[in-house]
């Protein structure tokens, strides 16, 4: 509980509780009355500390899943997420006001999070009075001054330097502000154009002096009516109740007036002329029909011709020749675009242009299809596309992009900022792009970015649900850096969804005899098969069982499988096509600890079964499990069960080196990958050691399932995250991170005719509706190709039925 402000008759107090809410209370001093003023939902399921930081103001700390969350109710967003194992309570954390630090317990040791580490990368917090809703747009006035527009209908002038100062707030839009553009009128005087919902356009004159900032509204315009569409349209849009001005650009004409280009939701590109002397606005063209809702517009110059480039919701770009209005010439304006091309499979959210040399330009675009496109255009008698290149480096919609010199900066809804280098060869008509550095931002629902070079540094401002700024030292990033845990050179891999979304896909096993991938939907009691050659997916329910944790084919016994059934192993028969199986037979209880269940399982090179267990889920803390209650077992050749490891929290990934001398293992709550000396004859494990620590390497997620490739590298899936890690177990180096469009990555196995396709299972377990909407295919199986690696086929279990011992390996 925290006391905010005291008045003569009452005090404002706030509190947090285990229901995940932050409440403000009016506490009467004389009347002794208490009533609730406001209630906010917090992003942490277990909030327990509310305090005031000297640097960041009011903070709420708590735990969510396996992370410590530091949340600012002032800014209404998460400031820091620190992996620490989860399952914590209030007494695990202390906030020290004097030194502005947070101490928390992790792995039986004390850890310290300094205030200046919340978060990394030079973040500037937002002040009270900044936008209260999503920031839709931002334009740069000077190196430090930015104009922003928001869903809260305000336009704000803010200085982003060593501090964030909100200088002006303009409140006269009747709906959300979707776009803003700026043009220098004369020294220290600027024309600001804002546009948004209800087809409203405003023009402001901004004056900046040493001691004052003054902004005057010059024009407020509302679109009166829609014009008749031109006959070249091939698709007639639905009748919208409201036309929205989606984007706006401004430029000078030869007559010193200002040409304002506006992209609209009714698919029309409208052109306005603004006379700065008389302060009059005229609609001079509204017959440029783009066929689809316009998302972004861009001013482009090729040779001596001026174009407005539009992007739309269907992935098209259109080049419109507006030279007539810019040059005040007598050339007739064409009512069809000079060039039209589809660059993306769906909407293009962001774009930028760079002139390469005479008559050549580079267009960079990012879309809802999660792809970054680089296209080289040329102009002689007409606009033509010379070459283009696509790359999928984000796992969600690309919403921000900036190109300068040989670098491209992109931002995505996945909260990742990626720096790439690009190059082109005009003779061979090729363009290449190589990502080399990435950063995670605390800004959710990113709507765009501003980036500009300052010496050897690039200042980047990301905006959406909040604003964050950071600086990147490009002097050290002119070449792709060596491999490290925080900065990688990603492979040009491809990701493809091959199955529907399940609840909790797990345990992928590639079976070469049937050329199929087998896996389970754990909490649905189902086993599944995917057959790539026919692109067919089959699923069968094992009646009477809620948890089916693993599936392994039995060697030389067609349609027979070992399956994990709660805490037991059993055998079922399934033809791989029907929606039901035989009833399980020969069940054998593996873990006798009450409440425990089995988890991952595999067979070693001899066909010996290995299976691990885990504790039950905490009733008062869903998504968390009791620690150190599980074990790792092997079912020996004579059918006996050996407990190989004890005090296991969540037994997960297993893999063996090609010479069968090393056993690699994941106990999830250790947040690490371990290696053991392995005796293939006896199954003995010894000399365990950590070979990769996710927490120490600042890698997000919980290590889950695992496989190994023929080069000896491990591929580790990360639950509560969207990636797979490729790790060199000898050096402990993170080699590659593969991003997937899912929130929970569970396991992986190599498969396909050449064993060079990585099949990845994912989950959509206990996701919120908002999470499902953003990543609807969480729970699907994905096929990753072009990894540059090949793996091993799955090893079948060697099992036969023995009357005296139900599950007997031979």
What's this, in brief?
The chain has 810 residues and is mainly β. It is 1% helix and 56% strand. The strands form 17 sheets. A 4-stranded antiparallel sheet has the order 1-2-3-4, with no helix packed on it. A 4-stranded antiparallel sheet has the order 5-6-7-8, with no helix packed on it.
Report on the architecture of this protein.
There is one protein chain. The chain starts with a strand and ends with a strand. The protein has 810 residues and is mainly beta. It folds into three domains: 2-117, Methylamine Dehydrogenase, Chain H (7 Propeller), CATH 2.130.10; 135-494, Methylamine Dehydrogenase, Chain H, CATH 2.130.10.10; 496-809, Neuraminidase (6 Propeller).
Mean pLDDT: 83
Q: Report the principal-axis shape.
A: globular
Structural class: mainly beta
Report the span from N to C terminus.
Answer: 63 Å
Quantity of strands, as a count? 63
- Counted by DSSP, the helix tally is 2
Q: Can you tell me the CATH class of the largest domain?
A: Mainly Beta
**Spatial ordering of strands, largest sheet:** 1-2-3-4
What's the Cα radius of gyration? 30 Å
Please estimate the helix content: under 10%
Largest sheet, strands/sense/barrel: 4 strands, antiparallel
Number of domains: 3
Looking at this structure, what is the CATH superfamily of the largest domain? YVTN repeat-like/Quinoprotein amine dehydrogenase
């Amino acid at each position: 509980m925290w006391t905010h402000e005291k008045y003569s008759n009452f005090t404002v107090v706030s509190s947090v509780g285990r229901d995940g809410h932050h409440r403000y209370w009016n506490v009467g001093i004389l009347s002794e009355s208490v009533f609730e003023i406001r209630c906010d939902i917090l992003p942490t399921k277990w909030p327990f500390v509310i305090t005031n930081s000297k640097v960041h103001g009011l903070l709420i700390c708590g735990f969510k899943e396996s992370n410590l969350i530091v949340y600012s109710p002032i800014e209404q967003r998460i400031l820091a997420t620190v992996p620490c194992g989860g399952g914590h309570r209030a007494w695990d954390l202390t906030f020290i006001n004097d030194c502005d630090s947070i101490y928390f317990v992790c792995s039986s040791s004390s850890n310290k999070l300094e205030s200046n580490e919340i978060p990394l990368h030079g973040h500037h917090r937002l002040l009270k009075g900044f936008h209260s809703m999503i920031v839709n747009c931002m334009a740069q006035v000077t190196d430090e001054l930015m104009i922003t527009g928001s869903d809260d209908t305000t336009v704000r002038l803010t200085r982003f330097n060593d501090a964030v100062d909100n200088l002006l707030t303009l409140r006269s839009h009747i709906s959300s502000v979707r776009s803003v553009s700026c043009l220098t009128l004369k020294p220290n005087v600027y024309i600001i154009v804002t546009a948004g919902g209800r087809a409203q356009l405003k023009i402001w004159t901004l004056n900046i002096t040493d001691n004052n900032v003054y902004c005057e509204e010059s024009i407020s315009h509302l679109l009166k009516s829609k014009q008749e569409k031109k006959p070249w349209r091939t698709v007639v849009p639905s009748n919208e109740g409201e036309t929205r001005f989606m984007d706006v650009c401004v430029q000078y004409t030869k007559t010193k007036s200002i040409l304002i280009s506006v992209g609209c939701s009714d698919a029309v590109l409208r052109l306005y002329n603004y006379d700065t002397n008389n302060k009059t606005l005229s609609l001079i063209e509204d017959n440029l029909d783009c066929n689809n809702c316009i998302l972004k517009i861009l001013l482009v110059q090729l040779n001596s011709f001026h174009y407005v480039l539009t992007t739309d919701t269907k992935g098209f770009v259109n080049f419109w020749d507006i030279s007539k209005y810019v040059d005040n010439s007598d050339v007739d304006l064409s009512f069809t675009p000079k060039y039209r091309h589809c660059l993306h499979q769906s909407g293009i959210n962001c774009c930028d242009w760079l002139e390469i040399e005479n008559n050549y330009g580079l267009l960079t675009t990012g879309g809802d299809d999660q792809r970054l496109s680089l296209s080289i255009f040329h102009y002689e008698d007409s606009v033509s596309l010379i070459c283009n290149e696509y790359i999928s480096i984000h796992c969600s919609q690309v919403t921000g992009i900036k190109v300068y010199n040989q670098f491209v900066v992109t931002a995505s809804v996945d909260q990742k900022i990626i720096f790439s280098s690009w190059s082109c060869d005009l003779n061979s008509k090729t363009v290449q792009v190589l990502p080399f550095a990435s950063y995670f931002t605390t800004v959710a629902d990113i709507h765009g970015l501003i980036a500009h070079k300052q010496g050897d540094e690039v200042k980047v401002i990301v905006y959406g649900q909040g604003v964050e700024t950071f600086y990147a030292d490009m002097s050290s990033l002119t070449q792709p850096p060596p491999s490290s845990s925080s900065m990688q050179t990603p492979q040009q891999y491809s990701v493809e969804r091959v199955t529907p979304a399940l609840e909790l896909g797990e345990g992928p096993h590639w079976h070469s005899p049937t050329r199929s991938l087998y896996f389970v939907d754990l909490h649905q009691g189902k086993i599944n098969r995917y057959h790539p050659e026919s692109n067919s997916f089959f699923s069968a329910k094992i009646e009477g069982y809620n948890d089916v944790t693993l599936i392994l084919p039995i060697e030389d016994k067609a349609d027979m499988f070992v399956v994990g059934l709660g805490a037991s192993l059993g055998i079922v028969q399934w033809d791989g096509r029907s929606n039901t199986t035989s009833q399980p037979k020969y069940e054998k209880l593996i873990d006798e600890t009450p409440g425990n269940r089995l988890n991952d399982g595999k067979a070693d090179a001899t066909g010996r079964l290995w299976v691990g267990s885990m504790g039950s889920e905490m009733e008062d803390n869903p998504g968390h499990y009791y620690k150190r209650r599980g074990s790792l077992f092997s079912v020996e050749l004579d059918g006996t069960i050996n407990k190989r490891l004890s005090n296991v929290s969540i037994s997960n990934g297993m893999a063996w080196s090609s010479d069968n001398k090393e056993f690699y293992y994941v106990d999830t709550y250790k947040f690490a990958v371990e290696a053991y000396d392995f005796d293939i004859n006896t199954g003995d494990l010894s000399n365990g050691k950590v070979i990769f620590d996710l927490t120490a390497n600042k890698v997000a997620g919980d290590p889950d399932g695992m496989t190994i490739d023929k080069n000896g590298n491990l591929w580790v899936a990360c639950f509560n995250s969207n990636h797979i890690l490729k790790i060199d177990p000898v050096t402990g180096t993170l080699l590659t991170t593969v991003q997937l469009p899912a929130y929970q990555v569970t396991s992986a196995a190599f498969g396909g005719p050449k064993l060079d396709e990585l099949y990845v299972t994912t989950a959509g377990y206990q996701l919120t509706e908002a999470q499902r909407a953003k990543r609807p295919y969480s729970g699907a199986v994905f096929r990753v190709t072009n990894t540059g690696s090949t793996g091993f086929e799955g090893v079948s279990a060697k099992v036969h039925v023995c009357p005296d011992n139900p599950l007997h390996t031979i």
